[in-house]
């Protein structure tokens, strides 16, 4: 699957402009700067997301990437932008909720969390949104190379405890690093399984 092309094919700013739901879909959520672009680029071996995350005007849309015509990866822009107006952010939350609730092809969401910081209030808000919309999700720790193995285990255990209070959360917590490649084969394996019919 990862030897194939991975191309941006659609950006949606509102529920009315979503692409047709055809292929199995996985969405990637996380606070800005969590390392989402780096992780997806490490997974695909391409700089697919760099363009989207570096352009501030383009951050408030869901970006759709087609992986080998078998799986769609959706980049959910970093939440927690202080500069977004209340009105705009309310509209954005409504859009995300309707996407999460209504997307029939959405198989799983990955909530990216910086291993150094652990769960932050914005992460918990996103998780609650996924609980409410009944979207199965799991936590992926990023930048695990910045911690010693013992510290990774500790943060993983802390997250695992917090997950017990979230109805839609899967218990696995995967530690990854775009720098060292830690967890990348596992994540590829997971995505490949998700792409199976
Ligand atoms: P995004 O905003 O979530 O797309 O985050 P980026 O992928 O642009 O990364 C944000 C910052 O974190 C950049 O300075 C990256 O170099 C750094 N970063 C990303 N992934 C890793 C990683 O696995 N390890 C380390 N040490 N730094 C990382």
From TrEMBL:
<keyword id="KW-0132">Cell division</keyword>
<keyword id="KW-0479">Metal-binding</keyword>
<keyword id="KW-0131">Cell cycle</keyword>
<dbReference type="InterPro" id="IPR006073">
    <property type="entry name" value="GTP-bd"/>
</dbReference>
<keyword id="KW-0342">GTP-binding</keyword>
<dbReference type="InterPro" id="IPR027417">
    <property type="entry name" value="P-loop_NTPase"/>
</dbReference>
<keyword id="KW-0717">Septation</keyword>
<dbReference type="GO" id="GO:0005525">
    <property type="term" value="F:GTP binding"/>
</dbReference>
<dbReference type="InterPro" id="IPR019987">
    <property type="entry name" value="GTP-bd_ribosome_bio_YsxC"/>
</dbReference>
<dbReference type="GO" id="GO:0046872">
    <property type="term" value="F:metal ion binding"/>
</dbReference>
<dbReference type="InterPro" id="IPR030393">
    <property type="entry name" value="G_ENGB_dom"/>
</dbReference>
<comment type="similarity">
    <text>Belongs to the TRAFAC class TrmE-Era-EngA-EngB-Septin-like GTPase superfamily. EngB GTPase family.</text>
</comment>
<protein>
    <recommendedName>
        <fullName>Probable GTP-binding protein EngB</fullName>
    </recommendedName>
</protein>
<dbReference type="GO" id="GO:0005829">
    <property type="term" value="C:cytosol"/>
</dbReference>
<comment type="function">
    <text>Necessary for normal cell division and for the maintenance of normal septation.</text>
</comment>
<dbReference type="GO" id="GO:0000917">
    <property type="term" value="P:division septum assembly"/>
</dbReference>
<keyword id="KW-0460">Magnesium</keyword>
<dbReference type="Pfam" id="PF01926">
    <property type="entry name" value="MMR_HSR1"/>
</dbReference>
<keyword id="KW-0547">Nucleotide-binding</keyword>
